[in-house]
Amino acid sequence: MLQDVGLVFSPGTPFEARALKDIDLEIEKNQIVAIIGRTGSGKSSLVQMIAGLQRPSSGTVLMDDLELYKKQTDRKLLRRKVGMAFQYPEHQLFEETVEKELSFGLLKQGYSQEEIEQRIKKAMSFTKLEDSMLPRSPFELSGGQMRRLAIASVIAMEPDYLILDEPTAGLDPAGRDEILGGLQAWQKETKKTVILVSHSMEDVAKLADFIIVLSDGQVVLADQTRNVFSQGELLQSVGLDVPQTTALMLELIKKGWKVPTYALTVQEAFEAILSQLREDSKDLPLGEIEKPKEVS
Questions:
Q1: Which helix H or strand E contains 180, and what residues bound it?
Q2: CA 45, 46, 48, 54: dihedral to nearest 10 degrees?
Q3: Which end of the chain is more exposed for a tag (fewer CB within 10 A), N or C?
């Protein structure tokens, strides 16, 4: 929970810059929360603050009942509760082998060897890492494998809150889908909270339960995913794209079609368009068109 939070860099100097202003947020547990906004909107500053890495200039940041920036706050407890993978998380890698990389945080927190092995196996399963990689140097892996390793080393800690800043930046579609699918599976099984920063509206539409929209350091919208993308014109007004299917709906509306203002998937867009065609074009031979089992 963030209460009246603000962040100013270099205050009182010619370089003073306000990154966040008047942030009031309450993030519900056990869901995937996406934070979106154009470059410079304050996304990274916000997630670093939630992770306990960036002290606010004003206001209060709470993680459950833990006030993050009080002097008496137990930092070890905070590290158990919150895990973060930065943008380009492979830059976090430093150990000699994949196994040591995955074990590092767990050893520091005093887990038994048996518990460490169990957690590593589970994290590797979610991130599609193979056992044959364990003795290898992290720096011998491909870019996508390094990204999965960095994320696996965080989820092995099983934090209550997993924070990811652009985890799929620079990856090809297959690598992106693999990582996001693993994160979604991990969240569903563990019931933890995932906070995700992303520029990809398609990824957000597929994954997120809740979306926070930032613009110029302020929250302009915070709601369920479907409600946020139903306000496509507002998103576009703050410099954001919308999922391509939602963009299609908005264009059809401009041309007089009576379709929803959003569609999160191709299947939803297909069904909306087909329904409108059946409603408005009774003479078209659409009776023979069967609804496909899946449109990809």
A1: helix 173-190
A2: 70
A3: C
Residue 121 structure tokens: 């196996």
Q: What is the DSSP string of 14-47?
A: TT-EEEEEEEEE-PPSSSEEEEE-STTSSHHHHH
With 0-12 / 13-18 / 19 or more C-beta atoms within 10 angstroms meaning exposed / middle / buried, residue 255 is exposed
Q: What's the pLDDT score for residue 69?
A: 85
What pLDDT was estimated at residue 281?
66
Neighbouring C-alpha atoms within 13 Å toward the C-beta of 232: 22
CB-side neighbour CA atoms (13 Å) of 107: 6
> Is 223 or 244 the better-scoring residue by pLDDT?
223
In CATH terms, the superfamily for domain 2-240 is: P-loop containing nucleotide triphosphate hydrolases (3.40.50.300)
**Domain locations along the chain:** 2-240, 243-296
Q: Which two tokens stand for residue 173?
A: 């579609």
